[in-house]
Structure formats: structure tokens, C-alpha cells
Amino acid sequence: MTDLGFHYRMEPGEGSGTMLLLHGTGGDESDLLPLGRSLAPDATLLSVRGRVLEQGMPRFFRRLAPGVFDEEDLHRRTDELAAFVRAAAAEHGLDPAQIDALGYSNGANIAASLLLLHPGLLRRAVLLRAQLPLAPEAPVDLRGARVLIAAGRTDPQIPAAEAQALADALQACGADVELHWADAGHALGMEEIDAAREWLGRTRG
């Protein structure tokens, strides 16, 4: 497989869409493949490993403290990931107009950053346990983008206000946003997975 700057796995699907899988802190390119296939059975799965290490654990960008992001590094890593997605689409013959993202925690945050810094790259995004990663420096046009945010009311890592701030920011940019609340912490439950599956089916096309 051609070296595109990231460790990644790709599983072809029978459909024309692609699901970009972005793991949480300490995960890798294999973590979300079962969930991705469950939620998007016909999609090509493009699963990427973050290039930043925090105490030996892969991440997609640096943080200065829990919940405090290194915004300079976030910008750079988001640009790198966007370049990878475009290169992978060209390398593997993927339709660049049909790329969705599924991210958990740190992966969900960089997916949100992709939406804000590279509008038009993602058609849809399922953000599991995400917060607003940055405030865009210029107006962003996200009309046509669809986003599902799955948040936990008792999440100790992401306060409810942070998830709401992300939803508000994306809506202000014109995205179609649904915010799903679960009586849960940072871990995911079947209720949210089922909600994501229903949302993906309903927003197809």
C-alpha cells in the first residue's frame, strides 16, 4: 500500500461512499473497524492512526492538559489529515464527494476540526464524545454538511456545555446538526450506536 504519511487500513465496500474512522486516545487504525462496518455496512472504511504520541498512546493532535488543546499543533495536524484524505481518495479511487467521518473522543475532535478548517471535505460526520476544538478565525460555510453529535450527560471529560458549544458553532456555520444526549459518561452505549445507525440511514443521499 502506498505510503501516504499515515498508518491506515482500508476495507473496500460495495457502495460508493467512504467512512473515515478516527480513533480515541490510545487507539489505532483497527479500533473502529467493527463499529464502522456495523454502522456503514456498504461503505469503504478508511481507518487512520494518529501520528502524535502522548505517553506512548496515539492521538491526532497534542494537548497541553486534559481539555486544553495545542491549537497550533491542531491546525497543522488537521491540515495533514485533510491532505491524507484527499491523497487516499485519489490513490484508491474513492469518490471525494461521498466521504463521511466517524470519530470517537480525540478522533471526533479532529473530525470537528476538519469540518471547520476544511469545509467541503466531509459530507457527514458522526462525532462521539466531541467538544469544540477551536474557534474558526474566519466565517465558515458548512451548508450541506450533516453532523450527529453523541454526548454523555455525565461525561467527566467533556462537560455538557462543551458539547453544546460544538453543536451551536456548527449550526451557526450552516451545518445540519443533531445533538443526541445519553445518560452516560465518556464510554459509549448501544443506545447511541443505534441512534448513529438510524441517523446514517435517514441522512443517506
Give an account of the 3D structure:
The protein has 205 residues and is α/β, with parallel strands linked by helices. It has a single domain, classed as Alpha/Beta hydrolase fold, catalytic domain (Rossmann fold), CATH 3.40.50.1820. The chain has helices spanning 33-39, 71-92, 106-117, 160-172, 190-202, and strands at residues 8-11, 18-22, 44-48, 52-54, 57-59, 63-65, 68-69, 99-104, 124-128, 146-152, 176-182. The strands form three sheets. Strands 1-3-2-8-9-10-11 form a seven-stranded mixed sheet, sandwiched between helices. Strands 4-5 form a two-stranded antiparallel ribbon. It is globular.
Provide the fold topology.
Elements: E1 8-11, E2 18-22, H1 33-39, E3 44-48, E4 52-54, E5 57-59, E6 63-65, E7 68-69, H2 71-92, E8 99-104, H3 106-117, E9 124-128, E10 146-152, H4 160-172, E11 176-182, H5 190-202
Parallel strand pairs: 2-3, 2-8, 8-9, 9-10, 10-11
Antiparallel strand pairs: 1-3, 4-5, 6-7
Helix pairs in contact: 2-3
Give structural attributes.
single chain, 205 residues, alpha/beta, Rossmann fold, 7-stranded mixed β-sheet, two-stranded antiparallel sheet, 5 helices, globular
Per CATH, the superfamily is Alpha/Beta hydrolase fold, catalytic domain
Number of helices: 5
* CATH level 1 class label: Alpha Beta
What is the CATH architecture assignment?
3-Layer(aba) Sandwich
From the 3D structure, determine the CATH topology.
Rossmann fold
How much of the sequence lies in strands comes to: 15-25%
Radius of gyration from the alpha-carbon trace, in angstroms: 15 Å
CA-based shape: globular
How many structural domains can be distinguished in the coordinates?
A: 1
Distance between the termini: 30 Å
Look at the helices and sheets and give the structural class. alpha/beta
